[in-house]
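Lab channel / #folding
Pinned by the channel admin:
"Please post every new chain as: sequence first, then the C-alpha coordinates as a reply. Keep commentary short and put observations after the output so the thread stays searchable."

First post following the new format, from NK:
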Amino acid sequence: MINVKKTLIVIISVMMMILLLVGCSNKSNDGAIKIVVDNDEKEDLIFRITWKAYSGRGETIGNIVNSYNEVNETDYNIKLVGGDEDLNVIDSLITKGDEVDIFVLPYRYVQSLGYENKLENLTDFFKDDENLFYEELWNLGVVDEKLKGIPWLGHSMGLIYNKNILEEADIDPEDISSLESLLLACGKVEKNTDANGIGLVGANHNDISWMVNQFIYGFGGSLVSDDGTEVSINSKAAKLAIDFYKNKLGKYAQPNWTEDTGLEIMEYFRNQEIAFEIQGLWGVTDIWKNGHEFETGIIPLESIGLLPEVGPLMLSVQPGMDEDKQDAAIAFIDYLLTVEAQEMIMQGEYSPEHDAYYPFRLPVRKDIAESSVFDKYPEFIIFLSGFEHPSIDVPVPLWQNIKDSIYAVNLNKVMNEQLSIDDFLILIQDEGNNILKNQ
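Reply from TO:
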Protein backbone atom coordinates (compact mmCIF):
# COMPACT_ATOMS: atom_id res chain seq x y z
CA MET A 1 0.00 0.00 0.00
CA ILE A 2 1.24 3.38 -0.92
CA ASN A 3 2.24 5.58 2.05
CA VAL A 4 0.33 8.81 1.29
CA LYS A 5 2.28 10.85 3.85
CA LYS A 6 5.65 9.82 2.40
CA THR A 7 4.40 10.51 -1.13
CA LEU A 8 3.33 14.02 -0.20
CA ILE A 9 6.69 14.69 1.42
CA VAL A 10 8.51 13.56 -1.75
CA ILE A 11 6.31 15.76 -3.97
CA ILE A 12 6.79 18.79 -1.77
CA SER A 13 10.56 18.20 -1.65
CA VAL A 14 10.78 17.99 -5.44
CA MET A 15 8.77 21.19 -5.83
CA MET A 16 11.02 23.02 -3.38
CA MET A 17 14.12 21.85 -5.27
CA ILE A 18 12.66 23.18 -8.53
CA LEU A 19 11.92 26.54 -6.93
CA LEU A 20 15.43 26.74 -5.53
CA LEU A 21 16.96 25.95 -8.91
CA VAL A 22 14.82 28.45 -10.75
CA GLY A 23 15.17 31.17 -8.12
CA CYS A 24 12.55 33.54 -9.39
CA SER A 25 11.07 33.75 -12.85
CA ASN A 26 9.15 36.12 -15.03
CA LYS A 27 7.85 36.06 -18.55
CA SER A 28 9.82 37.59 -21.38
CA ASN A 29 8.13 39.63 -24.08
CA ASP A 30 7.46 36.53 -26.16
CA GLY A 31 5.72 34.80 -23.24
CA ALA A 32 8.55 32.36 -22.50
CA ILE A 33 9.64 31.85 -18.93
CA LYS A 34 12.91 33.63 -18.23
CA ILE A 35 15.04 32.27 -15.38
CA VAL A 36 16.64 35.03 -13.35
CA VAL A 37 19.92 34.12 -11.70
CA ASP A 38 19.73 34.35 -7.92
CA ASN A 39 22.69 36.39 -6.70
CA ASP A 40 21.90 36.05 -3.01
CA GLU A 41 25.15 34.19 -2.47
CA LYS A 42 27.12 37.23 -3.63
CA GLU A 43 28.00 40.19 -1.44
CA ASP A 44 26.55 43.51 -2.58
CA LEU A 45 28.69 46.28 -4.00
CA ILE A 46 26.73 49.51 -3.45
CA PHE A 47 26.48 51.94 -6.39
CA ARG A 48 25.04 55.35 -5.40
CA ILE A 49 23.67 57.68 -8.09
CA THR A 50 22.55 61.31 -7.81
CA TRP A 51 18.89 60.57 -8.53
CA LYS A 52 16.23 58.48 -6.81
CA ALA A 53 16.55 54.81 -7.73
CA TYR A 54 12.82 54.61 -8.48
CA SER A 55 12.81 57.68 -10.76
CA GLY A 56 12.81 57.43 -14.54
CA ARG A 57 16.53 58.16 -14.54
CA GLY A 58 17.16 55.66 -11.79
CA GLU A 59 15.29 52.97 -13.70
CA THR A 60 17.36 53.60 -16.83
CA ILE A 61 20.59 53.33 -14.85
CA GLY A 62 19.13 50.28 -13.13
CA ASN A 63 18.77 48.62 -16.53
CA ILE A 64 22.48 49.23 -17.16
CA VAL A 65 23.30 47.71 -13.76
CA ASN A 66 21.11 44.69 -14.50
CA SER A 67 22.80 44.18 -17.87
CA TYR A 68 26.13 44.06 -16.06
CA ASN A 69 24.96 41.71 -13.32
CA GLU A 70 23.81 39.24 -15.95
CA VAL A 71 27.42 38.79 -17.11
CA ASN A 72 29.17 39.74 -13.87
CA GLU A 73 31.75 37.06 -12.99
CA THR A 74 33.04 38.69 -9.80
CA ASP A 75 32.02 37.64 -6.30
CA TYR A 76 30.03 40.86 -5.86
CA ASN A 77 26.57 41.81 -7.05
CA ILE A 78 26.09 45.48 -8.01
CA LYS A 79 23.24 47.04 -6.03
CA LEU A 80 21.88 50.41 -7.13
CA VAL A 81 20.83 52.94 -4.48
CA GLY A 82 19.40 56.41 -4.99
CA GLY A 83 20.94 59.63 -3.77
CA ASP A 84 21.31 63.34 -4.38
CA GLU A 85 24.00 66.02 -4.70
CA ASP A 86 24.17 66.98 -1.03
CA LEU A 87 27.93 67.31 -0.47
CA ASN A 88 27.62 67.00 3.32
CA VAL A 89 25.76 63.70 3.00
CA ILE A 90 28.27 62.37 0.47
CA ASP A 91 31.18 63.42 2.68
CA SER A 92 29.55 61.65 5.62
CA LEU A 93 29.07 58.44 3.62
CA ILE A 94 32.73 58.46 2.58
CA THR A 95 33.80 59.02 6.19
CA LYS A 96 31.71 56.06 7.39
CA GLY A 97 33.31 53.96 4.68
CA ASP A 98 30.96 50.97 4.79
CA GLU A 99 27.68 52.14 3.20
CA VAL A 100 28.63 53.05 -0.39
CA ASP A 101 31.37 51.61 -2.60
CA ILE A 102 31.00 53.47 -5.91
CA PHE A 103 29.75 57.04 -6.18
CA VAL A 104 28.35 59.08 -9.04
CA LEU A 105 29.60 62.61 -8.33
CA PRO A 106 29.46 66.01 -10.04
CA TYR A 107 32.95 66.88 -11.23
CA ARG A 108 33.18 69.78 -8.77
CA TYR A 109 32.73 67.31 -5.87
CA VAL A 110 35.42 65.08 -7.31
CA GLN A 111 37.67 68.12 -7.26
CA SER A 112 36.88 69.12 -3.68
CA LEU A 113 36.79 65.60 -2.17
CA GLY A 114 39.82 64.55 -4.16
CA TYR A 115 41.67 67.61 -2.91
CA GLU A 116 40.97 66.37 0.63
CA ASN A 117 42.22 62.84 -0.25
CA LYS A 118 38.78 61.34 0.34
CA LEU A 119 38.54 59.42 -2.95
CA GLU A 120 40.52 56.45 -4.23
CA ASN A 121 43.34 57.12 -6.68
CA LEU A 122 42.28 55.39 -9.91
CA THR A 123 45.27 56.35 -12.03
CA ASP A 124 46.82 52.87 -12.27
CA PHE A 125 43.50 51.28 -13.22
CA PHE A 126 42.40 53.66 -15.98
CA LYS A 127 45.50 55.42 -17.29
CA ASP A 128 45.09 53.68 -20.67
CA ASP A 129 41.49 54.92 -21.06
CA GLU A 130 42.27 58.63 -21.22
CA ASN A 131 42.24 58.80 -25.02
CA LEU A 132 38.68 57.45 -25.13
CA PHE A 133 37.35 60.67 -23.63
CA TYR A 134 37.43 64.39 -24.31
CA GLU A 135 40.61 65.78 -22.79
CA GLU A 136 38.91 68.63 -20.92
CA LEU A 137 36.39 66.28 -19.32
CA TRP A 138 39.04 63.75 -18.33
CA ASN A 139 41.15 66.44 -16.69
CA LEU A 140 38.23 67.45 -14.46
CA GLY A 141 38.66 64.13 -12.66
CA VAL A 142 42.36 64.71 -12.02
CA VAL A 143 43.48 66.28 -8.72
CA ASP A 144 47.17 66.79 -7.96
CA GLU A 145 48.01 64.55 -10.94
CA LYS A 146 45.92 61.72 -9.48
CA LEU A 147 42.79 60.41 -11.18
CA LYS A 148 39.93 60.64 -8.68
CA GLY A 149 36.95 60.47 -11.02
CA ILE A 150 36.11 58.96 -14.43
CA PRO A 151 33.76 60.83 -16.82
CA TRP A 152 30.59 58.83 -17.29
CA LEU A 153 27.76 61.03 -18.55
CA GLY A 154 27.16 64.74 -18.82
CA HIS A 155 25.74 67.72 -20.63
CA SER A 156 26.82 70.79 -22.53
CA MET A 157 24.90 73.96 -23.29
CA GLY A 158 23.59 75.15 -26.65
CA LEU A 159 21.59 78.08 -28.03
CA ILE A 160 18.09 76.65 -28.48
CA TYR A 161 15.56 78.55 -30.59
CA ASN A 162 11.86 78.48 -31.41
CA LYS A 163 11.53 77.83 -35.15
CA ASN A 164 8.06 79.38 -35.33
CA ILE A 165 9.17 82.69 -33.83
CA LEU A 166 12.24 82.89 -36.05
CA GLU A 167 10.11 82.24 -39.14
CA GLU A 168 7.63 84.91 -38.05
CA ALA A 169 10.51 87.36 -37.53
CA ASP A 170 12.02 86.42 -40.94
CA ILE A 171 15.26 85.14 -39.38
CA ASP A 172 17.38 82.42 -40.96
CA PRO A 173 19.18 80.60 -38.12
CA GLU A 174 22.03 79.89 -40.52
CA ASP A 175 22.82 83.63 -40.37
CA ILE A 176 23.43 83.51 -36.61
CA SER A 177 27.18 82.90 -36.52
CA SER A 178 28.42 85.50 -34.02
CA LEU A 179 27.28 87.39 -30.96
CA GLU A 180 26.63 90.47 -33.07
CA SER A 181 24.37 88.50 -35.41
CA LEU A 182 22.58 87.12 -32.33
CA LEU A 183 21.91 90.69 -31.20
CA LEU A 184 20.50 91.52 -34.64
CA ALA A 185 18.26 88.44 -34.51
CA CYS A 186 16.97 89.37 -31.05
CA GLY A 187 16.17 92.86 -32.34
CA LYS A 188 14.19 91.45 -35.27
CA VAL A 189 12.28 89.15 -32.92
CA GLU A 190 11.17 92.06 -30.77
CA LYS A 191 10.33 94.20 -33.79
CA ASN A 192 8.33 91.58 -35.70
CA THR A 193 6.78 89.41 -32.96
CA ASP A 194 5.32 89.66 -29.47
CA ALA A 195 8.21 87.68 -27.98
CA ASN A 196 11.37 88.84 -26.23
CA GLY A 197 14.66 87.97 -27.84
CA ILE A 198 16.43 85.74 -25.32
CA GLY A 199 16.10 84.36 -21.81
CA LEU A 200 18.86 85.42 -19.41
CA VAL A 201 19.66 84.57 -15.80
CA GLY A 202 20.29 87.36 -13.30
CA ALA A 203 19.20 85.96 -9.93
CA ASN A 204 21.48 85.24 -6.98
CA HIS A 205 21.58 81.56 -7.90
CA ASN A 206 23.90 78.83 -9.13
CA ASP A 207 22.65 79.42 -12.70
CA ILE A 208 24.05 82.95 -12.98
CA SER A 209 27.56 81.62 -12.40
CA TRP A 210 27.73 79.08 -15.22
CA MET A 211 25.69 81.30 -17.55
CA VAL A 212 27.98 84.35 -17.29
CA ASN A 213 31.16 82.25 -17.24
CA GLN A 214 30.37 81.03 -20.76
CA PHE A 215 30.73 84.62 -21.90
CA ILE A 216 33.89 85.27 -19.87
CA TYR A 217 35.62 82.23 -21.34
CA GLY A 218 34.26 83.01 -24.81
CA PHE A 219 35.71 86.54 -24.71
CA GLY A 220 39.12 85.10 -23.77
CA GLY A 221 38.95 85.64 -20.02
CA SER A 222 39.57 83.16 -17.21
CA LEU A 223 38.58 82.64 -13.61
CA VAL A 224 41.96 81.44 -12.34
CA SER A 225 45.54 81.32 -13.60
CA ASP A 226 46.74 78.35 -15.63
CA ASP A 227 48.30 76.75 -12.56
CA GLY A 228 45.14 77.36 -10.51
CA THR A 229 46.90 79.24 -7.73
CA GLU A 230 45.54 82.74 -8.34
CA VAL A 231 42.26 84.37 -9.32
CA SER A 232 42.61 85.98 -12.75
CA ILE A 233 39.12 87.29 -13.43
CA ASN A 234 40.00 90.99 -13.26
CA SER A 235 40.75 91.40 -16.97
CA LYS A 236 39.64 93.45 -19.93
CA ALA A 237 38.15 90.33 -21.50
CA ALA A 238 35.98 89.58 -18.46
CA LYS A 239 34.81 93.20 -18.31
CA LEU A 240 33.79 93.15 -21.98
CA ALA A 241 32.01 89.81 -21.50
CA ILE A 242 29.92 90.95 -18.51
CA ASP A 243 29.16 94.27 -20.21
CA PHE A 244 27.93 92.44 -23.31
CA TYR A 245 25.78 90.08 -21.27
CA LYS A 246 24.25 92.79 -19.10
CA ASN A 247 23.99 95.85 -21.30
CA LYS A 248 23.77 94.53 -24.87
CA LEU A 249 22.08 91.15 -24.65
CA GLY A 250 20.14 92.23 -21.56
CA LYS A 251 18.21 94.74 -23.70
CA TYR A 252 16.46 91.80 -25.38
CA ALA A 253 15.88 89.62 -22.30
CA GLN A 254 12.61 88.93 -20.51
CA PRO A 255 11.41 91.85 -18.31
CA ASN A 256 12.30 90.29 -14.95
CA TRP A 257 15.55 88.70 -16.06
CA THR A 258 17.69 90.16 -13.26
CA GLU A 259 15.79 87.99 -10.76
CA ASP A 260 15.18 84.89 -12.89
CA THR A 261 16.91 81.49 -12.82
CA GLY A 262 17.17 78.89 -15.57
CA LEU A 263 13.90 77.35 -14.41
CA GLU A 264 11.96 80.52 -15.21
CA ILE A 265 13.69 80.78 -18.58
CA MET A 266 12.46 77.30 -19.51
CA GLU A 267 8.92 78.34 -18.63
CA TYR A 268 9.15 81.49 -20.76
CA PHE A 269 10.51 79.45 -23.67
CA ARG A 270 7.83 76.81 -23.25
CA ASN A 271 5.17 79.55 -23.34
CA GLN A 272 6.76 81.07 -26.48
CA GLU A 273 7.53 84.33 -24.68
CA ILE A 274 11.21 84.25 -25.74
CA ALA A 275 12.84 83.15 -29.00
CA PHE A 276 16.18 81.90 -27.65
CA GLU A 277 17.42 80.17 -24.51
CA ILE A 278 20.78 78.75 -23.45
CA GLN A 279 20.13 75.27 -22.06
CA GLY A 280 21.21 71.67 -22.25
CA LEU A 281 19.29 68.95 -24.08
CA TRP A 282 16.51 69.17 -21.47
CA GLY A 283 15.55 72.50 -23.07
CA VAL A 284 14.50 70.47 -26.11
CA THR A 285 12.90 67.50 -24.34
CA ASP A 286 10.90 69.92 -22.17
CA ILE A 287 9.10 71.05 -25.33
CA TRP A 288 8.56 67.46 -26.43
CA LYS A 289 6.99 66.63 -23.07
CA ASN A 290 4.57 69.50 -23.44
CA GLY A 291 3.03 68.50 -26.72
CA HIS A 292 5.49 69.68 -29.38
CA GLU A 293 3.62 72.97 -29.73
CA PHE A 294 6.55 74.23 -31.79
CA GLU A 295 9.75 72.88 -33.28
CA THR A 296 13.14 73.72 -31.84
CA GLY A 297 16.58 74.16 -33.34
CA ILE A 298 20.04 74.21 -31.75
CA ILE A 299 23.02 76.43 -32.52
CA PRO A 300 26.37 75.37 -30.98
CA LEU A 301 27.57 78.07 -28.60
CA GLU A 302 31.10 77.82 -29.94
CA SER A 303 29.81 78.90 -33.37
CA ILE A 304 28.76 82.28 -31.93
CA GLY A 305 31.92 82.83 -29.90
CA LEU A 306 30.96 81.34 -26.52
CA LEU A 307 32.32 78.31 -24.67
CA PRO A 308 29.53 76.04 -23.41
CA GLU A 309 29.27 75.07 -19.77
CA VAL A 310 29.62 71.34 -19.18
CA GLY A 311 28.58 69.28 -16.19
CA PRO A 312 30.06 65.79 -16.31
CA LEU A 313 29.02 63.29 -13.68
CA MET A 314 31.90 61.06 -12.67
CA LEU A 315 32.49 57.64 -11.21
CA SER A 316 34.54 57.58 -8.02
CA VAL A 317 35.47 54.84 -5.57
CA GLN A 318 35.40 54.70 -1.79
CA PRO A 319 39.02 54.67 -0.56
CA GLY A 320 40.47 51.85 1.51
CA MET A 321 38.55 48.89 0.05
CA ASP A 322 40.04 45.43 0.33
CA GLU A 323 41.62 44.19 -2.90
CA ASP A 324 38.84 41.82 -4.01
CA LYS A 325 36.15 44.41 -3.52
CA GLN A 326 38.16 47.10 -5.26
CA ASP A 327 38.79 44.81 -8.22
CA ALA A 328 35.04 44.20 -8.49
CA ALA A 329 34.39 47.95 -8.43
CA ILE A 330 36.95 48.53 -11.17
CA ALA A 331 35.39 45.77 -13.28
CA PHE A 332 31.98 47.43 -13.00
CA ILE A 333 33.33 50.87 -13.93
CA ASP A 334 35.10 49.28 -16.90
CA TYR A 335 31.70 48.06 -18.07
CA LEU A 336 30.03 51.46 -17.58
CA LEU A 337 32.65 52.99 -19.88
CA THR A 338 32.02 50.55 -22.75
CA VAL A 339 30.21 51.69 -25.89
CA GLU A 340 27.38 49.27 -25.05
CA ALA A 341 26.73 50.82 -21.64
CA GLN A 342 27.25 54.36 -22.90
CA GLU A 343 24.64 53.78 -25.61
CA MET A 344 22.12 52.66 -22.99
CA ILE A 345 22.23 56.15 -21.47
CA MET A 346 20.53 57.45 -24.62
CA GLN A 347 17.53 55.21 -23.99
CA GLY A 348 16.43 58.08 -21.77
CA GLU A 349 14.11 58.27 -18.78
CA TYR A 350 10.57 56.96 -18.89
CA SER A 351 7.76 59.47 -18.41
CA PRO A 352 4.54 57.73 -17.29
CA GLU A 353 2.54 60.89 -18.05
CA HIS A 354 3.48 60.64 -21.73
CA ASP A 355 4.28 56.92 -21.99
CA ALA A 356 7.54 57.82 -23.70
CA TYR A 357 11.28 57.99 -23.10
CA TYR A 358 13.29 61.21 -23.09
CA PRO A 359 17.10 61.54 -22.99
CA PHE A 360 18.30 63.33 -19.86
CA ARG A 361 22.11 63.31 -20.24
CA LEU A 362 24.68 62.50 -22.90
CA PRO A 363 27.33 59.77 -22.99
CA VAL A 364 30.83 61.22 -23.01
CA ARG A 365 33.08 58.87 -25.00
CA LYS A 366 34.60 60.64 -28.00
CA ASP A 367 33.52 57.91 -30.41
CA ILE A 368 29.90 57.86 -29.26
CA ALA A 369 28.90 60.42 -31.92
CA GLU A 370 29.39 57.65 -34.49
CA SER A 371 26.90 55.40 -32.70
CA SER A 372 23.57 54.48 -34.25
CA VAL A 373 21.80 55.59 -31.05
CA PHE A 374 21.91 59.13 -32.43
CA ASP A 375 19.91 58.09 -35.48
CA LYS A 376 16.83 58.63 -33.32
CA TYR A 377 18.10 61.87 -31.79
CA PRO A 378 20.33 63.51 -34.45
CA GLU A 379 19.84 66.99 -32.97
CA PHE A 380 21.66 65.99 -29.79
CA ILE A 381 24.93 65.32 -31.64
CA ILE A 382 25.29 69.12 -31.75
CA PHE A 383 25.72 69.20 -27.97
CA LEU A 384 28.67 66.78 -28.11
CA SER A 385 30.87 69.39 -29.79
CA GLY A 386 30.69 71.42 -26.58
CA PHE A 387 32.89 68.88 -24.82
CA GLU A 388 35.88 69.86 -26.94
CA HIS A 389 36.42 73.40 -25.58
CA PRO A 390 34.11 73.94 -22.61
CA SER A 391 33.57 76.60 -19.99
CA ILE A 392 34.48 75.23 -16.57
CA ASP A 393 32.30 76.68 -13.83
CA VAL A 394 34.50 75.36 -10.98
CA PRO A 395 38.06 75.26 -12.41
CA VAL A 396 39.80 74.47 -9.08
CA PRO A 397 38.38 72.88 -5.91
CA LEU A 398 38.35 76.05 -3.81
CA TRP A 399 36.49 78.00 -6.49
CA GLN A 400 33.32 76.36 -5.16
CA ASN A 401 33.82 78.38 -1.94
CA ILE A 402 34.30 81.56 -3.97
CA LYS A 403 31.22 80.81 -6.04
CA ASP A 404 29.02 80.11 -3.03
CA SER A 405 30.20 82.97 -0.82
CA ILE A 406 30.89 85.95 -3.10
CA TYR A 407 30.52 85.22 -6.81
CA ALA A 408 26.83 84.63 -7.50
CA VAL A 409 25.54 87.18 -5.00
CA ASN A 410 27.73 89.95 -6.40
CA LEU A 411 26.96 89.06 -10.01
CA ASN A 412 23.33 89.59 -9.09
CA LYS A 413 24.24 93.01 -7.71
CA VAL A 414 25.96 93.87 -10.99
CA MET A 415 22.88 92.93 -12.98
CA ASN A 416 20.72 95.07 -10.67
CA GLU A 417 22.96 98.17 -10.88
CA GLN A 418 24.03 97.81 -7.24
CA LEU A 419 27.68 97.18 -8.11
CA SER A 420 29.78 98.27 -11.08
CA ILE A 421 31.51 95.70 -13.27
CA ASP A 422 34.92 97.15 -12.36
CA ASP A 423 34.23 96.93 -8.63
CA PHE A 424 32.88 93.41 -9.02
CA LEU A 425 36.05 92.22 -10.77
CA ILE A 426 38.30 93.81 -8.16
CA LEU A 427 36.24 92.33 -5.32
CA ILE A 428 36.30 88.79 -6.74
CA GLN A 429 40.01 88.99 -7.51
CA ASP A 430 40.99 90.26 -4.07
CA GLU A 431 38.64 88.26 -1.86
CA GLY A 432 38.95 85.21 -4.11
CA ASN A 433 42.72 85.22 -3.70
CA ASN A 434 42.27 85.42 0.06
CA ILE A 435 40.13 82.27 -0.10
CA LEU A 436 42.63 80.43 -2.28
CA LYS A 437 45.59 81.34 -0.09
CA ASN A 438 43.99 80.95 3.35
CA GLN A 439 42.12 77.68 2.78
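NK: Residues 4-22 form the longest helix (19 residues).
TO: also worth noting, Residues 1-38 have pLDDT under 50 and may be disordered.
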